[in-house]
Amino acid sequence: QVQLVESGGGLAQPGGSLRLSCAASGFTFSTYAMSWARQAPGKGLEWVSGIRSDGSDTFYADSVKGRFTISRDNAKNTVYLQMNSLKPEDTAVYYCSAHWAAYDYWGQGTQVTVSS
Questions:
Q1: DSSP H or E stretch at residue 18
Q2: What b-and-e string marks burial along 16-29, b requiring 16 or more CB atoms within 10 Å of the CB?
Q3: Rounded Cα gap, residues 17 and 32, in angstroms
Q4: How much is the pLDDT for 115?
Q5: Handedness of CA 5, 52, 56, 91 (dihedral sign)
């Protein structure tokens, strides 16, 4: 059974950092591209970052470029999102997702709140 389990969310101060993790199981993780997306209160889903299956390329939304870093460890079936210089507008539920061919899997999300 496919599972994506996010962790690492919580409360951070503006300018602070958090590291999200997403542990995958039930599929061949190393063949899937992985992404992070977020949904702020009252807003739609926003794509944040993506990484190729082998980690060779990474991609970022303009809103997080230079502050967030996506990475993956295929030996641990885990994708990460290092979030630095956090802003209040980064407050959202963050979701990881896996993509390959016609297959898309999503996690249940982890809350990130940036507030002083």
A1: strand 18-25
A2: eebebbbbbeebeb
A3: 27
A4: 97
A5: negative
Closest listed residue to residue 6, CA positions, set 22, 28, 19, 29: 22
Find the distance separating the first CA and the last CA of the chain, reported in whole Å.
40
Q: How many CB atoms lie within 10 A of CB 69?
A: 16
Q: Convert the pLDDT of each residue in 18-52 to its tens digit.
A: 999 999 999 999 999 999 999 999 999 999 999 99
- Is the CB of residue 70 less than 8 Å from the CB of residue 58? yes
Task: Retrieve residue 1's tokens.
Answer: 């059974």
Distance CA(71)–CA(50), nearest Å, equals: 9
Q: Would you state the pLDDT for residue 12?
A: 98
Q: What is the pLDDT of residues 1-19, one digit of tens each?
A: 999 999 999 999 999 999 9
